[in-house]
Write a structure and sequence with these properties.
- The chain is of the alpha/beta class.
- It contains eleven helices and eight strands.
- The protein has helices spanning 12-19, 61-66, 74-89, 107-111, 114-125, 142-146, 167-174, 181-188, 192-197, 216-234, 239-252; strands at 20-25, 38-45, 48-55, 94-100, 132-141, 153-157, 161-163, 203-205.
- The radius of gyration is 18 Å and the shape is globular.
- It starts with 11 loop residues before the first helix and ends in a 9-residue tail after the last helix.
């Protein structure tokens, strides 16, 4: 968890700069405003045009405030959905980077329909007729991350985490003591190996040295290799196959029992 939150860990824009050429960022949800905690735009991944959308954290205090600590508001999810629909219109694959402690829980976000915006994304992402690839690059927190995570392929960086709740919040609820976060983290099974074993992700992307922050360029190259293979596989599928495959993938999640005749 500490590695996933490392202050020098590469964020979405760090990977965009290393993986894409000709990237043009697009802004606004065309309804309320622009959410800086979600970035998105069009660019070229090697020789293929793609739409990339990612949750963006900041490093210093000014950036953290500007990016709202990586916690999206409803307009962020609506911007993301607008860009995904644009990608589908022009038959461009969608790549999403998940890195958030969770959706912003403020009163203003709730007033503008936070839960409804996330729910709309879940529904509409399931219907996109283009390849969708999601990568957990840091902290994948709750519905805030899942709002960009309904994909044909889901990958995690080696030291990333993906969970329904943070260890601190879980410990406060279960143990009545946020200091029991390490025990809660173990119980949540939020690491990449745990989630791969449970069938919730499709692969683990290795990180260099002590983590992605120790060599961002090498981490980006490992991510490039994974994205290249996934795009090659998914690009040969028809829209119907992509939609049906995505549906079946999520229907299988959480099913640990079989019926006996």
């Amino acid at each position: 968890m500490q590695l996933a939150r490392h202050p020098k860990r590469p964020h979405s824009l760090d990977y965009v700069q290393r993986l894409l050429t000709g990237f043009d960022e697009l802004h606004g949800d065309r309804a309320f405003g622009d959410d800086h905690s979600i970035i998105g735009g069009v660019g070229w991944f090697e020789d293929q045009p793609v739409m990339v959308i990612g949750q963006q954290k900041g490093r210093d205090t000014k950036q953290k405030l500007f990016r709202n600590f990586g916690m999206p508001k409803p307009e962020g999810y609506r911007k993301a959905m607008r860009l995904m629909e644009l990608a589908a219109k022009f038959s461009r694959p969608v790549i999403t980077f998940l890195d958030t402690p969770g959706a912003y829980p403020g009163v203003d976000a709730e007033e503008r329909g936070q839960a409804e915006a996330i729910a709309q994304n879940l529904r509409e992402m399931s219907r996109l007729g283009v390849p969708v690839i999601a990568v957990v690059i840091g902290e994948g927190g709750s519905g805030g991350a899942l709002g960009l995570g309904v994909a044909n392929r889901i990958y995690m960086l080696e030291n990333a985490v993906y969970s329904v709740i943070s260890p601190e919040s879980c410990a406060a609820i279960i143990y009545r003591d946020s200091g029991q976060a390490p025990a809660a983290a173990a119980a949540l099974k939020m690491t990449a190996p745990d989630l791969l074993e449970l069938g919730l992700i499709d692969g683990i992307i290795p990180e260099p040295g002590e983590g992605a922050h120790s060599d961002p360029d090498k981490a980006a190259e490992a991510l490039r290799t994974t994205l290249r293979a996934a795009l090659a596989e998914l690009s040969s599928m028809t829209p119907r196959q992509l939609i049906d495959g995505r549906y079946e993938k999520f229907r299988r999640m959480g099913s640990f029992f079989t019926e006996r005749a």
